[in-house]
């Protein structure tokens, strides 16, 4: 599928090479979390155990991107079968457009208790552990609790995220409801810097409770009571009844066959179909012999077509106007591909007749692999930390629309359009491996870019991740990294793209990839150089 030596010949790669491993591998955005996962593998845990332990550790060491109060999704390859997990939460039962308008909101707020939906992360850990785990959930969460209780040195890129977040928070997050956020993460009143020791004792105690009760404390017990009381005291919508009603969903991953490889994503309410739709449009176009600029232009236009469809049609699958398979229909995608011309365009959705996240990949000695992603959304989420628990609540409700005529309109008990998506590659019935690129609406764009880099351009995982990325914003506006060659930028501009060079590399997402050689069983991994990315293996 890829050239193992391609990294040496690719001009934009970092000095970091791919990593090979025989027994197991964990790839994620923070070294200490990856090491936690590796130790679980060495103790006899499988890929699912390692994923849970790593995910829990990430809530501690990278709180700028995820937390216990966020949502999670996973694609699990276990004992020869592929499984999908949707652990996203619903809007509280009393949260509605009318209720928000009564509070003076004309659009979905970003901060406060209003955009908080039911957190799914603890339920994801418990469900994965119960179905596939070799070790107990309590044992898997202990390393993360130890990091939180004893303290850990802050990683460089996480420190930068702290600085960027609190620079804005101090100006706009006023009032008692936000006080615990500052007390939890700015204990001495100063933004922590790289190498500073961070201690999160409330967080540690919460992890212990979740582990001992298999998450029951979070949804029905002590933690649920605390969340409920805090919400009521500050005029929030989320209640203990909402938490108790939460359930994970085991779903069937959806796929697109692309040039010999089956690319898997999760179905709605995720935006995984956007990545698959873009690949489906691309495969109907003959790009053989095209220049690098022409291939790039075609990829951008294919992504724009798929994204417009996704934003218009994707939402809670129980309320979608069309069958989820319609967006991936081969005849429909072929017709969409005919709309791509030599110049950049602004597209509209097709018609039918009928920013804060962490991603990790794990693999074990038996060939089991996990693609896992969790997030609080937009950094620290809602900006609300429940006092005494360390739980930073997500703001996924921010993605809802206040226009009741749209697919993703806010309604009680409804799931929002979700940005976080795990990916997985298969070759017929043989697993190739997990991949993901986190980062809000960048995610399907990153998925398409790393997949085509590996399949079309024969790049290994590290080279595919290192390649300069682009992100479509709207219309003909395109952000590109500073490393994008100047001649390519100029050529894209001549094709009508409005280019903006973006120096904040975090907006282009952060990815991890693990691929398994189907003949030797050897794992090959790539990790993100735009952050503190790390691969732990043995």
Keywords:
Serum Albumin, Chain A, Domain 1; 2 domains; seven-stranded antiparallel beta sheet; 21 strands
| Total separate domains | 2
Question: What spatial form do the alpha-carbon principal axes imply?
Answer: globular
Helix content: 25-40%
Discrete helix count: 18
In the predicted model, the low-confidence regions spanning at least 5 consecutive residues are none
Radius of gyration, rounded?
Answer: 22 Å
Largest sheet: 7 strands, antiparallel
Structural class: alpha+beta
What average pLDDT do the residues reach?
Answer: 93
Counted beta strands: 21
Numbering strands along the chain, what is their spatial order in the largest sheet?
1-20-19-15-14-9-8
Description:
The protein has 538 residues and is of the alpha+beta class. It has 2 domains: 25-247 and 357-399, no CATH class; 251-354 and 435-537, Gamma-glutamyltranspeptidase, large (L) subunit, C-terminal domain (Serum Albumin, Chain A, Domain 1). It contains 18 helices and 21 strands. The protein has helices at residues 6-9, 31-42, 47-61, 97-102, 121-132, 137-150, 156-172, 179-185, 201-213, 216-219, 222-233, 240-245, 272-282, 292-313, 330-337, 443-455, 461-466, 486-494, and strands at 19-21, 25-28, 71-78, 81-86, 152-153, 197-198, 249-251, 254-258, 261-265, 358-363, 369-375, 385-386, 391-392, 423-427, 430-438, 470-474, 477-480, 498-501, 510-516, 523-527, 534-537. The strands form 5 sheets. It has a 7-stranded antiparallel beta sheet. The protein has a 7-stranded antiparallel beta sheet with strand order 7-4-3-11-10-2-21. Helix 13 (272-282) crosses helix 15. The protein is globular.
